[in-house]
Amino acid sequence: MLLSLAQSALPIGISGIEKRFGAVSILSDLSLDVAAGEFLTLLGPSGSGKTTLLMILAGFVRANAGSIKVGGEEIITMPPHKRNIGMVFQNYALFPHMNVFHNIAFPLKQRHVSAAETAERVERALDLVQLKGLGERRVDQLSGGQRQRVALARAIVFEPRIVLMDEPLSALDKSLREHMQIELRNLHRRLGMTTVYVTHDQREAITMSDRIAVMNAGRIEQIDQPEVLYARPQTKFVAGFIGESSFVPVESRNGSVWYEDRKLRMTTTAPSAGRHLMVVRPEKLRLVADADEAGGVNLLPATVGDVIYQGDSFVCYATLRDGRQVTLRDYCRSDVLAKLPAPGEPITLGIDAQDVVLVADQ
Amino acid sequence: MSLASASLDHASRRDGALNGDALNADARREARGMLALLSPGLFLVFAVIIVPIGWLFWLSLFDESGQLSAANYARFFEQASYIKTFVTTFKVAFTVTGACILLGYPLAYMLSQLPRRAASICLIFVVLPFWTSVLVRTYAWLVILQRKGLVNTWLMDLGVISQPLPLANNFAGVVIGMTHIMLPFLVLPLYASMKTIDVDCLRAGMNLGASPAATFRQIFFPLSLPGLASGVVIVFVLCLGFFVTPALMGGGKVIMWAMRMEQTTSLYSNWGAGAALGVVLLGVTLALLGLFHWLLGARATGVWSRR
Amino acid sequence: MTKRLCINGLALAGLLASAAVPASAADTITVASWGGTYQEAQTKAFFDPTAKELGITIKQDTTNGLDDVRLQVTGNAVKWDITELGADECARGSKEGLFEKLDYSVIDKTGINPKLVHDDWVGISYTSVVLIYRTDVFGDKGPKTWADFWNVEKFPGRRALSGSQATETLSVAALAKGIPIDKVYPVDIDGALQSVDKVKGHIDAWWTSGAQAMQLVKDGEVDMASIWNGRAGTLKKSGAPVSFSFDQGVLTADCMVIPKGSKNKDLAMKALAKFVSPDLQANLPLYVDNGPANEKAFETGKIPPERIKDINSAPDNVKKQVLQDPAFWRDTLVEATEKFNNLIQQ
């Protein structure tokens, strides 16, 4: 029965959400579509409005304007207890006066499910989150990870149309967090429920999501699959928030893009005329011999600032001619190690044409 | 490493090995030091609580001629008035506690839901009566509730009633006056416990399909029970030993245990007569506290206390 | 360190003792009474003139009654040299041996009712329990006798009796049954209790203090009540619409005793002799409605004739009242009070 969630998963259509607290605008004209069965993450720094959006979805915060449709049905004016949305809270919000069984049975009790069926479904939910046999435990006898699993079981046992998760792993230590990320991902693959997940941890978002909506100051900056988001960030904010980036100023004129006096080789068409920024990821840069200006590689002359050896890899901090800092990371292959530059040495950095990504300079 | 720790274990188990004596002596010295620090408190408890209670109990065993006897306790069964007083005392305590719950729970709930600033202002009003003596407050109630008092005058002027309501000098008067005095003792612990209830628990309740009323019933109310229980215990125990308000508001018809103690002390020439009343009250109060603890403490607080 | 503390402590105690001795030496006694306007009147009538005549200092304190004396005597901490008590308390305290013997070669007992002259206690003044009613309710046709008070058909209205003074209420209850004033004592306790039982359903308050009795009548909480004549007089003087008389009053005596173990027994004896002397006794009615215990006070000529009718122990008023018998209550109080308490409790 629990495994039938995939069939009942519904798409969410969010449009025109406005939320103000007094004069402060938290969300402005926010629209977002979540496909049925999708795992979508709202990623952003604190204060970006991601939690507020989640609270509006759950019905705990009332928006000033907008529409939320679940499978075509408008729910924005529906009270939280009628929305049929499962939620996992940041601090788990388990009921301390109930044992594990009764916590998980709570949503079934509200839906007047028979005792026999309740017992069966709770048992299956416990099994699903690998807590078989812990039903009689008191909440305060559980470890952090176990509580997390109980909260999860409680949020899915009643087969909600949507599951919301508000930074559910932030209270766990690093190794447990990474373990739970994979477990959550697998659980989602098995059950296929439409999931909206909130986090400020970009690595977590990339690991788990089908798509990520990067939020900043109450707006969605970009919404894409993790690999697209990483490879083709559309704004400086996204490029800076996801992965490491250095920014190199470039100029677009007459249909081509120029870095200082060099015309950039690139695989995309040049953007509108004006100043832009080239997004330079550390692993996309490499050291090239000065003469080697073969096809498809853009060359950036620079001076070595510092080289840091990290065992499997090294990091080289370099300064471009205009004084900008860029970072290069590469694996310690013997051929690379052989020509590792010394601090103060002039070098040439190369970036392939297909790795050139430009964002607007704001 | 395992070898090293094993040999260390071995050494520490053997007296005299590797500073063993010195460490043991140090531990004993520390224990003595702690006891010395505790001793003023222990002495105070012994001198101010244990000794007088023991003396009270000792006194209660002697009759008027100074002979060891159970006369002081036998009196409770020989004289019907003691049983009556006992029943009255519990009737008052139960009624007042009930009234305090009915008034105090909604009040504490309202306070807990108010914004912090508004709540602290309202709390001042809850605590304000503590600044006035019980005697003054009781007399004020007498002025308000008596036959020609404010309430009856207003109600009669408004034509709501044609005969004054009997609100003072009877059971109702005692309950009203005592409820007013006891209310803060219930509201304060209850409010404190309501403030600790995680708002996310209530959100979770609603999210999982419980209506606001069901969320209150199944989550908020059970989580507020420890606070309610401590408030109830405080109020009930204070009620059992209350004197001033029943003496003034009861019109001499509502005799509570403490009033009977006063009567008995002046009526009998031996302290034992009054002391026996004190011993009985103390015993009953302790028994009740044990019962409360069993009912609410052992079964519930265990789950609630550690969160 | 410990030793030094001890020595210092001893020195301090010695210092305190040497400082305290001259002040509490043979020229100072402490007298305790009921406080309030009554004790103020006693101060002017008895204490100040005595202090002046004997050249001593009289310190004052207030008492709650017999249990205070009991506490001091049984606890070997007697603070008072003379204290006032109700006559029945004196009789009981005497039985318990709480008082010093009085020396009637120092104290002149002439003029004091023999029932109030005992080995270790002597009468000092009288209080009457009287029937008061509100004239705004009854006009001048209010209840005049205790039988009227008991007659709830003829005199409907709210009533209060004393709940703390079983002796007084039982005397009144006996009168309500129609027993003539000279036949009330010895009180038929069971009969009196039956009489109380008849009226108790109509009693709206059983008062426990004089102030409470006064408040009940003053605020109109009750329409009629038993009340002490001093309180009744104060109410009437303050303009409250009330009426009372000494008819069928219950005259109860107050007495004075020297608690056993008094440190200034001889001086206290001399002071007590002054307090009961006709000359100082005649001062009391000048300040308060409580009458003197010594009849000879009325022969001193100090009391203005128009004042005499208001004084409860004036010979004409005494005839209208029952004199409470302390010796009777000494032996019956505990049992009677327990039964009475049982009866009036809801």
Protein described:
The complex is a heterotrimer of chains A (362), B (307) and C (346). Chain A has 362 residues and is of the alpha+beta class. Chain A has ten helices and 20 strands. Chain A has helices at 5-8, 50-58, 100-110, 115-128, 144-156, 174-191, 202-208, 226-231, 236-241, 334-338, and strands spanning 12-21, 24-34, 39-43, 65-70, 73-74, 85-88, 162-166, 194-199, 211-216, 219-224, 246-253, 256-259, 262-263, 274-280, 286-288, 297-309, 313-320, 325-331, 346-352, 357-360. In chain A, the strands form four sheets. Chain A has a six-stranded mixed sheet, with helices on both faces. The longest helix of chain A has 18 residues, at 174-191. Chain A is elongated and about 75 Å long. Chain B has helices at 2-13, 20-59, 71-78, 80-113, 116-127, 134-145, 150-157, 171-195, 199-207, 212-240, 244-249, 257-267, 271-305. In chain B, helix 2 (20-59) packs across helix 13. Chain B folds into two domains: 2-59; 80-305, MetI-like (MetI-like fold, Orthogonal Bundle), CATH 1.10.3720.10. Chain C has 346 residues and is of the alpha/beta class. Chain C has two domains: 27-124 and 255-314, 3-Layer(aba) Sandwich (D-Maltodextrin-Binding Protein, domain 2), CATH 3.40.190.10; 127-252 and 322-344, D-Maltodextrin-Binding Protein, domain 2. Chain C has 15 helices and ten strands. Chain C has helices at 2-23, 36-54, 66-74, 87-96, 135-138, 146-150, 166-176, 189-200, 210-218, 229-237, 265-275, 278-281, 305-308, 315-318, 326-344; strands at residues 28-33, 57-62, 82-86, 122-134, 159-162, 203-207, 224-228, 242-257, 291-292, 322-323. In chain C, strands 1, 2, 3, 4, 5, 6, 7, 8, 9 and 10 form a ten-stranded mixed sheet that branches. In chain C, helix 2 links the parallel strand 1 (28-33) and strand 2. The longest helix of chain C has 22 residues, at 2-23. Classes of the chains: A alpha+beta (362), B mainly alpha (307), C alpha/beta (346). Chain B binds chain C through residues 79-81, 84-85, 88, 142-143, 146-149, 166, 168-171, 247-248, 251-255, 263, 265-269, 271, and chain C through 64-67, 70, 74, 92, 96, 158, 160, 163-164, 203-208, 212, 215-216, 219-221, 333-334, 337-338, 341-342, 344-346.
